[in-house]
Amino acid sequence: MTTLVASTRNYFAELWRAWNNFWFTPTDPATLALIRLLAGGMMLYTHFIWSFDLAGFIGRDGYTPVEFLKQMPGREWSVWSIFDWIGPNWLLWTVHILALGVFLCLFLGLFSRIAAVLAYLLAVSYVQRVTPGAYFGLDKTNCMLAMYLMLGPCGARYSLDRLWRLRRGDASEPAPSTAANVAIRLMQLHLCVVYFFSALAKLEGNTWRLGTALWWAAGNYEYQSLPLTWLADWPILVALFTHLTVFWELSYPFLVWNRFSRQLVIWTAVAIHGGIALFMGMITFGLAMIFANLSFLKPETVRRWVDPVASRVSLALVGKKVG
């Protein structure tokens, strides 16, 4: 009996230790910084696009007037947006330009911690204003990445903040950060939830079970950027890719954590979302999801890829190499 109690106690002690190591082991902020650079650029671009019809999409009396949205059940207490209180177009454009400045700061890594918080609040405000008329997967991914970027030192590397510290004589390497690890872990778990429940939702549709869903997407001229109607002559291939997509999404939360299967899972994500970007015209969404999957890259891998470029940039700007 004593042996059983001791074994049980040791088991839970190991479990608790593994839990703490998973969440709270300080890590190099390189992965978080790379995602800030990529996601910040994506948010800058996607919100700049609203400028071509800002009053129509975001204006108080646009395609979905604020007063109309306020009548939707639950919106008065569950949804908020700074654009609900902005009336004149000059004020709308002023806020929009300031918001683009915030996204630019996040992209460049200037006042990164403040910019990350403001970028999240602004991204949510844009999304809540255009819902339900223009709310898609890209908007959700932008908000997801912005939410976790504000939790950690996303400007510790590959940023103007880092160059500014170097210019002032602080050449010390960014310290490993518990906050960076927490932010990355939350991002990883969020992705697992997204893929798993996406697969469950697909299984409720007949086309995914029958293996024809890929064809219905490929045959839709609204989304085609490259011709895919030749797939009509390859029904078995269509069925195979359709079922493989569902299997990949279902298995993602289980296989991505194993170091032996992780590379296959992530490269499959790159292939699937790259295919969506290339063949279905959803370039920004495809790239945003690839950026999110980079959260599974080890900081050592990120530094091996990005540090040489960052060193050249810093050498050109401040005369010193830095990661």
From TrEMBL:
The lineage of its organism: Bacteria, Pseudomonadati, Planctomycetota, Planctomycetia, Pirellulales. This is Vitamin K-dependent gamma-carboxylase. The chain crosses the membrane at residues 30-50, 90-123, 234-257, 264-292. It is found in: Endomembrane system. Residues 24-301 form the HTTM-like domain. PANTHER family: HTTM DOMAIN-CONTAINING PROTEIN (PTHR39535:SF2), SPORULATION-DELAYING PROTEIN SDPB (PTHR39535). Pfam families: HTTM (PF05090). It comes from the Bacteria. Its main location: membrane. It comes from Lacipirellula limnantheis. Keywords: Membrane, Transmembrane, Transmembrane helix. It is a multi-pass membrane protein. InterPro entries: HTTM-like, HTTM_dom, Sporulation_signal_mat. GO terms for cellular component: endomembrane system.
